């Protein structure tokens, strides 16, 4: 049976923070627990892979995928392609999701094709923010950050995925703008 949703985590040299990110996804039982958490190691040179493997040994829902360091969009595409959920939730390896984030995102994706929630900039350890649903728009269009967003798999497929040529920040906005220009409904 295909899980209703999958979380895809993009991680590059996120080792020290990644355990908290994955743990926050596993502990958010608001949507009935995590059927699938795919962590894409985007060519890390630190302990990222070891952290995921240690968590995966205890939680069969967690799986490590590897992608050469080609940017977040390439890693997002790899993670989505290797997942099996019909609803895809995305975050980065240095983020923690807030309680009930999964249920809130899934609820939006049941009625809209795109969902977003930028990070809350409250520093926890000097670098991490907490992802909580809130509004952000650009030119009247929903403009979620890739570190806290969701998409229906069918929309990702129709749009041809995230553009792997874009990197360096705000690289995910192209995907959400293209999808909305194609008439997809969003909620931020």
Describe the structure.
The chain is α/β, with parallel strands linked by helices and 188 residues long. Helix content is 33%, strand content 23%. The protein contains six helices and twelve strands. The strands form three sheets. It has a seven-stranded mixed β-sheet, sandwiched between helices. The chain is globular, with a radius of gyration of 15 Å. The model is unreliable at 127-135 (pLDDT under 50).
Topology, element by element:
Blueprint: E1 5-11, H1 15-27, E2 37-41, H2 48-58, E3 62-66, H3 72-82, E4 87-92, E5 96-97, H4 101-111, E6 114-116, E7 119-120, E8 130-131, E9 137-138, E10 141-142, E11 148-152, H5 153-159, H6 173-181, E12 186-187
Parallel strand pairs: 1-2, 1-4, 2-3, 5-8, 6-12
Antiparallel strand pairs: 4-11, 6-11, 7-8, 9-10
